[in-house]
Amino acid sequence: MNIIHKLIAAASASLALAAAAPAAAQEVEYDAIEEKNLLKGKASIEADKGYILLTLPARGNGIFVKTPDADDIAEYNEEWEEKYEKAAERYAKKLKSYEQQLEYWERQRRKRTARPEKPEEVTRETFSIGDIERRMLVSFGPQYVFSKDTDGEKSYSYMIQVEPGTYTYYGPIFLMPNGQTMGTCYCMGSVKFEVGAGEITDLGTFMAQEWASDGDMQMATVGYEPMGRDPRPVEYPTFASLADYNVVPADLRAAGKMNNFFGILIGRHPPVEGVLAYDRDRVIDVKEAEAIAAMEVEAEALAEAAEAVAEAAEAIEDAEAALGEVVAESAAETAAGSEN
Q1: Beta partners for 272?
Q2: CA Rg, the chain, in Å?
Q3: Distance CA 112, CA 253 (A)
Q4: How do 147-149 and 155-162 pair as beta strands?
Q5: Keyword Signal: yes or no (predicted)?
Q6: Cα distance between residue 158 and residue 201, in whole Å
Q7: pLDDT for 240-258, tens place per residue?
Q8: Cβ–Cβ under 8 Å, residues 45 and 51
Q9: Are 189 and 256 in contact (CB under 8 A)?
């Protein structure tokens, strides 16, 4: 089976799985920004919001997941408590009804009906309102392009207004209005970055993965067949409409494994030099590993310096002791000479 057939089969499987996935309500606030609206004053760059900017060679789509902050967690816990209380009340009513039905059933001489089924107990340990991360989804594309260049080498840029925080790339996934999805989640490893308030965090052409080699793609994609890729460095297109705003390159970090919220195909992001690596199925945060290695080298240097200081202090003590002995001997000789 060639790569085209594999991709078709993967897409078909993804559609089948997506059809069975339950819809999820969107909780995190985000909005697509179009350059034409920015120029007309219909949209603006707000100081208390963050922005994600990215460029692709064609229309595309994907999902980011915001790491829940303290406010998100507090809101989630409050909703959990409210829904748990209601579920517990419903369970109490069902249990009372069940006990009455069971008592009636047991009094029957001839059991003409099936034994009533006891309702499933609602406990704090088992009750759930779903993963909080599913409420933190931010999608983009393929519509609502920020800017497009169709002359020569085509490019399509997207800009999303988001809440400031940490965002992980969940994968090239199409999130439909009804909550259904199609695509592949990077559940086994991805990248994340910070989005600051009042800043436009620029991913450039990174999302296009044109920087990845065949070897990188083979580490990330099951069944990938080498295509003779010629890796190209990430570029950061500039926009006159954003000249007066704070546009900063994304500081990418490795992101660990995530749950497959939608039951779709599972994959992982290609390794990124200096950022993301893999040891079989283990995700390696290269920047963190390098920082730890540097700290270990520094700690070793400090330990060696401390040892040298201790040795020097000991040498000084020995010298002072020797000097003290010489002074004492000299004083004794002087005293003996005076007596004579």
Answers
A1: 276
A2: 33
A3: 65
A4: antiparallel
A5: yes
A6: 12
A7: 999 999 999 999 999 999 9
A8: yes
A9: yes
Using one digit for the tens of pLDDT, what is the confidence trace for 67-78?
999 999 999 999
DSSP symbols for 39-96:
HHTSS---TT-EEEEEEESS---EEEEEPP-HHHHHHHHHHHHHHHHHHHHHHHHHHH
Distance CA 3, CA 65 (A): 29
DSSP string, 30-54: EEEE-HHHHHHTSS---TT-EEEEE
Percentage above 90 pLDDT, the chain: 61
Side-chain half-sphere exposure of 305, counting CA atoms within 13 A: 6
Q: Is residue 155 a contact partner of residue 56, using CB atoms and an 8 Å limit? A: yes
Which residues lie closer than 8 Å to 228 by C-beta, 6 or more apart?
214
CA separation for the pair 77, 126 (Å, rounded): 15
Q: In sequence order, what DSSP letters do the residues of 209-241 get, joined into one string?
A: TTT--HHHHHHHSTT----------------GG
Angle at 114 between CA 111 and CA 120, to 5 degrees: 135
pLDDT digit string (tens) for 102-159? Answer: 988 888 877 678 889 999 999 999 999 998 999 999 999 999 999 998 777 789 999 9
- At position 193, the amino acid (one-letter code) is F
Q: Indicate left, alpha or beta for 219 from its phi (over 0: left) and psi (-120 to 50: alpha).
A: alpha
Write down the pTM of the prediction.
0.77
Q: In what side-by-side order are the strands of the sheet with 181-185? A: 173-175, 181-185, 265-266
- Write down the domain spans for the chain: 3-67+136-280, 285-340
